[in-house]
């Protein structure tokens, strides 16, 4: 039994206006999927991306939704379904990075990290899963720091991404009876706004001698949503240029 979803089944991306999320939106739209995506701080980039998707002959929808607010997440699922119908693909990319040593990290920042990077991921799965098409695909964007941290001031971020990896394992078991797969992509350094200030420090340390491109992460996400990946679920796949090898 391999209940693959249709290649034109809609996709919903949490955090799609820029960085890796935008590359994932463009990639899934180019494959022929209508793509709804959320944004919180970048309305202009969201509108420009919808325009680009439509110019390419696809269908796009930008929805303002703060992943830290579960009600926003629930409404985003509802809005996406109203426009495109039940999703076949769900990608949860929205995430934040706040750095700080363990003895200095502010409690409010800790709560914010959990709200976006952990509860936001849970809410997206919780509210989307009942509507996902059987045979559907869920992909979360974690981080290679879930396995090995490698630099100071990253404990809280790494903890949130380790939580995502474990959430995915358990969710895989719950969703398997419906042939829905869920996997976690764990990038290392990728060229986006999030890492703009860190690149000079990181680049020389990368075994492959370069930083990843958002499109390379989108390629892996696209593979995970393809029929070829039907037997993979509950996995965390690290893609980091050898950083944690
Ligand atoms: N870049 C890296 O080297 C790297 C490495 C490992 C893992 N990651 C992970 O990859 C994912 C994407 O990161 P990126 O590098 O593309 O970062 P980015 O350029 O900073 O983009 C962050 C994305 O998350 C969205 N987002 C942030 N807070 C949100 C909130 N409260 N509600 C809804 N959306 C929110 C942003 O939406 P707006 O555009 O509306 O602000 C944007 O789409 C994150 O989960 C990050 O932790 C990144």
Automatic annotation (TrEMBL):
It comes from the Bacteria. Belongs to the short-chain dehydrogenases/reductases (SDR) family. This is 3-oxoacyl-[acyl-carrier protein] reductase. It comes from Bosea robiniae.
């Amino acid at each position: 039994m391999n209940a693959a979803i249709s290649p034109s089944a809609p996709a919903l991306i949490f955090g799609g206006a820029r960085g890796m999320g935008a590359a994932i939106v463009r990639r899934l739209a180019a494959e022929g999927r209508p793509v709804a995506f959320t944004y919180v701080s970048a309305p202009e980039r969201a509108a420009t991306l919808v325009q680009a998707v439509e110019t390419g002959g696809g269908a796009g929808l930008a929805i303002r939704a703060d992943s830290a607010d579960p009600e926003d997440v629930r409404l985003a699922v509802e809005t996406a379904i109203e426009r495109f119908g039940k999703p076949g693909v769900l990608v949860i990319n929205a995430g934040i990075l706040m750095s700080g040593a363990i003895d200095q990290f502010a409690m409010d920042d800790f709560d914010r990290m959990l709200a976006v990077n952990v509860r936001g991921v849970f809410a997206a799965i919780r509210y989307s899963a009942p509507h996902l098409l059987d045979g559907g695909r869920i992909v979360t964007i974690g981080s290679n720091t879930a396995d090995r941290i490698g630099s100071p001031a990253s404990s809280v971020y790494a903890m949130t991404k380790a939580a995502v990896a474990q959430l995915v394992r358990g969710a895989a078991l719950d969703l398997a009876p419906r042939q829905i797969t869920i996997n976690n992509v764990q990038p290392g350094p990728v060229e986006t706004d999030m890492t703009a200030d860190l690149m000079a420090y990181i680049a020389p340390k990368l075994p492959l001698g370069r930083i990843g491109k958002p499109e390379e992460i989108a390629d892996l996400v696209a593979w995970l949503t393809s029929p070829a990946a039907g037997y993979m679920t509950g996995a965390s796949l690290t893609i980091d240029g050898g950083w944690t090898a």
